[in-house]
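Lab meeting tomorrow. Look over both lines:
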Amino acid sequence: MARSITFIKGEYKTLNDKKKTSLEEGAFIYQKRDETESEKRKWSRMSRAQKWVHFKTYYLRLTAAGCLVLALIGFFIYHDVIQKTDVVYQCALVNERATEIPISMFADGFMQSMDMDPSKNKASFYLYYTDTELAKEVGAVVSSDLTRLSSMIYASKLDTMIAGQEDFDGYLDNGCFTDLAEFLTEEERKAYEDRLYIPDVPENTEKHPFGVYLDQSSVYRQIFEGGGGIVEKPILGIIFNSENKEMSRKFLHYLMSSSGGETAGK
């Protein structure tokens, strides 16, 4: 019996010692603070355990928040400066359906065909909707897309447009496309002769082509491997004030090739 009592007392004493030790280690933070004492002086008088408790109490959250801010700043610097991707070519796909992954792969393929690194140089193929019913189906806003298209054309930021004949003619009436009779070389005109879109309108008395049909382009159809492709005879037009017309020429070669390489004019 005595042995049992002695053991309990010993255990009780040990627990007391533990509580006392823990209190002593953190007791510094409960002491009345001397506002005139410098932080450096306070820090020098603390034990290692007291310093840790003091740090957790007053500085841990601030340090964690600071590290998070620095990490975010570092991420944006890396993403926007070190690994910045420049959009070097912009093409609008009007009233069409396609999924994101095939479009991205198609864009990367075009960049690679020009010996450009897709991680640093980006070709943008963006879907725009000017048809009210189709826009509702995909969750787009017609007024927003029309405004954006007009703004990009006005600012010389759009290089090419791919659309069905009705939509294409609407932008053609507003003078948005390059006369391909003046742009294409004789070799290119012969190579694409059966694919040229020649508007049958009174104004086009000399029967100049203003677009190229893409329905026979196996390269272009890669965009719709994930679904879509609702425009039966898409037409490519080069925007009249594009600053990348020579790149559009190479894009046309890319589309007209059988495997994403150059054809006419190489």
